[in-house]
Amino acid sequence: MDMYNHNIYPGDLYAKRAIKRKVELDWGTEDFEYLQKVEFHAGGALNEVRPDIIVYNAGTDILDGDPLGGLSISPQVHHLL
């Protein structure tokens, strides 16, 4: 599962085909929508496979004001992830 700003990532179509569950976000996606999509798609992904371990990397480019990611996730929500 990969959540990303579809306007900037991934720029490589070959890499994009390798993502099994794409969660494409728009510029400026905020806390509420982001958390809804995490919950919905993580639940769906776990119904598709039963992993022995889960690694969740929220990254830092999702934070409001980060020029790379273009999203608007507050520091408070980022710390919850």
Automatic annotation (TrEMBL):
Residues 4-79 form the Histone deacetylase domain. It comes from the Eukaryota. Gene3D superfamilies: Histone deacetylase domain. This is Histone deacetylase 11. The lineage of its organism: Eukaryota, Metazoa, Chordata, Craniata, Vertebrata.
